[in-house]
């Protein structure tokens, strides 16, 4: 890493249900080196995706498995005269992580605290601001992932029916990587365009989670249109079940634009995706069964 390059790090406000409904407890860790209390976080490894980094760091520092929820504001500050950026998520504790953490030189104590008590315990003002931001949004959310299929070679060189065009070597590698990244959001039902390249993209995820991939013509190129695709996406968004939709570049922008407009969210300046990239809309319950978008994030594979 070059001297002037920002330090990349990731962390989470790990929470669990408290004694009173709607009153969560959050995890704070104590670092003996600095004698401070903060949220679990740590530096990303060279080339490590931020979603993989946050799951790994939180698991290592707390011994608990996080399920990523809505994206929270990033925090920036200087570390040894170098800029450092920490990307944060709200993350629900869903059980113990493999290799349960033990006290060590980096983290020697973890406490679960109600939000008000955690605010008094935190050492840094930017962590207090983050905790307050966490408190302003919905506690329970579910993910709706919109994924563009991974690379599938040159269309002009494929002489057989286009729906049979498979992923190329890079696309297969990205599909395997995507399975690990998307697992950070927890299990979701995979729904795919009825083409080989889309099915191949979600297959490693389905094998990892034990889910059954369902094909849907509403997301299949040549069988659908913008209105039909958006109507189907809204149906999925409204039933409160995590979902992963794999489709085509020609459809992605319409899906994101339609989802945001119908749910009252600002449409991103550039809603399109490169191959293998995905949008994650974190949804929360709304009035009359219509959800709202609590957060929207985009990631490359």
UniProtKB/TrEMBL annotation:
Residue ranges constituting the Nudix hydrolase domain according to the UniProt record: 5-136
Domain of life: Bacteria
Listed GO biological process terms: AMP biosynthetic process; ATP biosynthetic process
Lineage: Bacteria, Bacillati, Actinomycetota, Actinomycetes, Streptosporangiales
Keyword Zinc: no
Enzyme superclass (EC): hydrolase
Provenance organism: Actinomadura viridis
InterPro entries per UniProt: His_Pase_superF_clade-1, His_PPase_superfam, NUDIX_hydrolase-like_dom_sf, NUDIX_hydrolase_CS, NUDIX_hydrolase_dom, Nudix_hydrolase_domain
SMART domains, alphabetized: PGAM
Entry GO MF terms: 8-oxo-7,8-dihydrodeoxyguanosine triphosphate pyrophosphatase activity; bis(5'-nucleosyl)-tetraphosphatase (asymmetrical) activity
This protein's name: 8-oxo-dGTP diphosphatase
Enzyme Commission number: 3.6.1.55
UniProt key word Transport: no
SUPFAM superfamilies in alphabetical order: Nudix (SSF55811), Phosphoglycerate mutase-like (SSF53254)
Record keywords, A-Z: Hydrolase
């Amino acid at each position: 890493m070059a001297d002037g390059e920002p330090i990349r790090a990731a962390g989470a406000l790990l929470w669990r249900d408290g004694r009173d409904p709607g009153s969560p407890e959050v995890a704070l860790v104590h670092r003996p080196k600095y004698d401070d209390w903060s949220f679990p976080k740590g530096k990303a490894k060279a080339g490590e995706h931020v979603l993989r980094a946050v799951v790994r760091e939180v698991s290592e520092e707390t011994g608990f498995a996080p399920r990523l929820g809505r994206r929270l504001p990033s925090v920036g500050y200087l570390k040894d005269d170098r800029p450092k950026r920490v990307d944060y998520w709200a993350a629900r504790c869903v059980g113990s992580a493999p290799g349960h953490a033990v006290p060590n030189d980096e983290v020697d104590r973890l406490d679960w605290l109600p939000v008000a008590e955690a605010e008094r315990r935190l050492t840094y003002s930017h962590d207090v601001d983050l905790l307050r931001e966490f408190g302003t949004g919905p506690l329970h959310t579910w993910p709706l992932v919109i994924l563009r299929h991974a690379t599938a070679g040159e269309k002009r060189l494929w002489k057989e029916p286009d729906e049979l065009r498979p992923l190329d070597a890079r696309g297969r590698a990205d599909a395997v990587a995507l399975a690990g990244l998307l697992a950070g959001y927890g299990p979701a039902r995979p729904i795919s365009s009825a083409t080989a390249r889309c099915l191949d993209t979600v297959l490693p995820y389905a094998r990892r989670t034990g889910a059954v991939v369902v094909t849907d013509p509403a997301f299949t190129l040549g069988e659908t249109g913008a209105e039909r695709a958006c109507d189907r996406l809204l149906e999925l968004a409204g039933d409160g079940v995590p979902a992963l939709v794999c489709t085509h570049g020609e459809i992605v922008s319409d899906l994101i634009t339609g989802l945001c407009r119908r749910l009252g969210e600002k449409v991103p300046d550039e809603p399109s995706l490169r191959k293998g990239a995905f949008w994650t809309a974190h949804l929360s319950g709304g009035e009359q069964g219509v959800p709202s978008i609590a957060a929207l994030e985009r990631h490359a594979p």
